[in-house]
Recover the amino acids of this structure.
């Protein structure tokens, strides 16, 4: 379990980064963004026209529309142009029509926003997953899987919510602009003064509360922690129960959830307080304006009516705009974080060439390979040189932690050496296309992962086109056939999370069979039979050796009995090869191998070398 990304200090996230995040959303589907803004402008205009209808209505009511002036004149001209009588009934019908269009456009804006929102969320998820699959193995060592899960599942949802809010803010701003414009036409100075007061208040009230970004950032971090503890508890449920970790995890989970709860309450409290403060101030401003409009601006009755109506509509919208700005600020950390996460993931891609591999690979060679894990604190391999040819069996033995499995990982290209090179038929492997190289190498690891799918799916992961006969043959050699009848649905049995329905030895046998199904040239067996009894282990090894296909086999073993017939055995200690030769040569040399062999011979059968494995 890792405590994912070191949470960046929210203050360190500049406005430029926030704007960059928003710009990226716009650039994702520019035509949608333009459509949303264009429709929002229309909504604002329709709102303004709808409001302006108050003028002709009052004028017609007052003097029957005798000799209209100003804005009323515009309406009269528009009606004349359309050939519609300028009567109260038609004017009211006009308002109805304009408002119907306005609200229909509002629905369209919301619809387009939903498309942008859901589409962008999908885009973030797909991109993150793609980038994760292409990332270096070391990325997962360094960051664990929690961050990825949280980013793909949770952060993307919050990030896309910011988009909906930004669209609402754009629309509301344009509607406010329409009201402001009409009010400005009627009483310019009064409106200018009101605008200054309202906007200043908006800023002051924002500073009275913690920034939305700050609270949002705390919520985002708390979310990551919740996800991380949740995963630790579920993924390691057996160890949790066996080691009695429940209370420790419960405490950690509560602490994470509490942090999330506190930040959420704080956010909602501030949101509500801000909204109410805004509304109070807006109402107070409106009543102040009624007085000023009548006394100072000496507006006509119709003008005053429109002005006040505009103010009544404008004030709550301005306050909702203020609230929206707070919410957007609150959601932006998720957008900024998800983008940063994606950029980091993309920057961590495996770096491979595009050359094809000439199959079959005849010879794989390590020359002066030195390596250390980025998450470790030292050199794991030093000056490792060896070669394995097609048809050969090369073995590595040595104490736990000597670096044997690391050789397997480097051979499969899961990590890159820091020094020296690994080549196949003289070509450094990193020049190959990654897919082609990994098709040539089949690794059976110490703890192979089985997918929660059918046995058949698991057997053919490396070769989806394998025929039934190939699968059956691999199962026979790896002794999967022996327990096939015990599985309720044979090849179609779903194996459960990480093959939970199988014993450790059965899982290993499935892993060996799937490596054999893979049409590879190099097979790496890393303690691949450690959980089988010696008899079964010998049978599996003999079966692999009897195969018609000529693999280069690299075997890693603690049990020396499985490597005595290897063409070359390399003894590793502390990251270096300290002895090499055949079993007979090494026993004769009376070096480290001879001592280890003698020690194993003295122990009861099944004795192993070293502690781990
Ligand atoms: N992903 C990793 N990040 C950091 N250090 C690692 C990682 N994997 C292995 N190591 C370290 O590298 C060293 C060599 O590990 P490796 O698994 O290659 O040894 P091994 O000889 O295969 O051991 P064993 O026989 O126990 O499997 C060990 O000290 C181990 O702690």
């Amino acid at each position: 379990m890792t405590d994912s990304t070191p949470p960046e200090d929210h203050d360190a996230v500049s406005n430029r980064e926030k704007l960059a995040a928003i710009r990226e959303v716009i650039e994702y589907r520019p035509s949608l963004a333009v459509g949303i803004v264009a429709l929002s402008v229309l909504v604002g205009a329709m709102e303004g026209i709808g409001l302006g209808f108050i003028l002709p209505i009052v004028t017609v009511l007052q003097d029957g529309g005798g000799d209209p002036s100003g804005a009323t004149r515009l309406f009269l001209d528009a009606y004349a142009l359309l050939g519609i009588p300028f009567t109260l009934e038609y004017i009211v019908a006009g308002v109805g029509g304009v408002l119907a269009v306005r609200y229909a456009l509002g629905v369209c804006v919301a619809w387009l926003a939903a498309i942008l929102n859901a589409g962008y969320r999908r885009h973030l998820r797909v991109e993150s997953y793609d980038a994760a699959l292409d990332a270096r193995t070391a990325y997962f060592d360094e960051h664990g899987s929690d961050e990825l899960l949280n980013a793909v599942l949770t952060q993307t949802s919050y990030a896309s919510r910011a988009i909906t809010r930004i669209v609402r803010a754009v629309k509301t701003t344009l509607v406010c602009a329409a009201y402001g414009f009409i009010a400005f036409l009627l009483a310019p100075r009064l409106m200018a003064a009101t605008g200054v007061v309202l906007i200043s208040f908006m800023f002051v009230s924002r500073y009275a509360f913690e920034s939305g970004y700050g609270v949002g950032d705390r919520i985002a971090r708390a979310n990551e922690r919740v996800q991380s503890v949740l995963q630790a508890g579920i993924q390691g449920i057996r160890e949790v129960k066996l080691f009695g970790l429940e209370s420790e995890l419960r405490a950690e989970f509560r602490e994470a959830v509490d942090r999330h709860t506190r930040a959420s309450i704080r956010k909602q409290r501030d949101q509500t307080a801000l909204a109410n403060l805004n509304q109070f101030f807006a109402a107070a401003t409106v009543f102040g304006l009624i007085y000023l409009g009548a006394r100072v601006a000496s507006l006509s009755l119709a003008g005053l009516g429109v002005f006040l109506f505009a103010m009544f509509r404008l004030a709550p919208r301005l306050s909702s705009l203020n609230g929206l700005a707070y919410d957007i600020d609150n959601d932006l950390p998720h957008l900024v974080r998800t983008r940063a996460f994606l950029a980091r993931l993309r920057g961590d891609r495996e770096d491979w060439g595009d050359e094809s591999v000439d199959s079959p690979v005849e010879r794989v060679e390590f020359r002066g390979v030195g390596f250390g894990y980025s998450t470790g604190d030292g050199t794991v391999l030093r000056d490792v040189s060896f070669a394995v040819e097609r048809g050969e069996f090369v073995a590595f033995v040595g104490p736990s932690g000597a670096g044997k499995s690391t050789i397997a990982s480097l051979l499969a290209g899961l990590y890159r050496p820091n020094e020296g090179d690994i080549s196949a038929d003289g070509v450094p492997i990193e020049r190959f296309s990654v897919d082609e190289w990994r098709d040539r190498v089949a690794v059976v690891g110490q703890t192979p992962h089985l997918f929660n799918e059918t046995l058949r799916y698991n057997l053919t992961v490396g070769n989806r086109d394998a025929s039934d006969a190939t699968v059956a043959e691999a199962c026979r050699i790896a002794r999967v056939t022996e327990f096939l009848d015990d599985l309720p649905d044979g090849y179609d049995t779903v194996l459960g999370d990480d093959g939970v329905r199988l014993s450790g030895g059965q899982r290993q046998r499935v892993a060996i069979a799937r490596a054999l199904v893979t049409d590879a040239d190099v097979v790496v067996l890393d303690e691949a039979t450690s959980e089988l009894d010696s008899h079964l282990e010998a049978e599996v090894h003999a079966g692999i050796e009897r195969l018609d296909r000529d693999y280069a086999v690299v075997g890693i073993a603690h049990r020396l009995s499985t490597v005595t017939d290897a063409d070359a055995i390399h003894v590793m200690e502390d990251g270096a090869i300290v002895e090499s030769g055949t079993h007979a040569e090494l026993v004769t040399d009376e070096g480290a191998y001879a001592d280890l062999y003698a020690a194993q011979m003295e122990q009861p059968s099944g004795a192993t070398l070293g502690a781990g494995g």
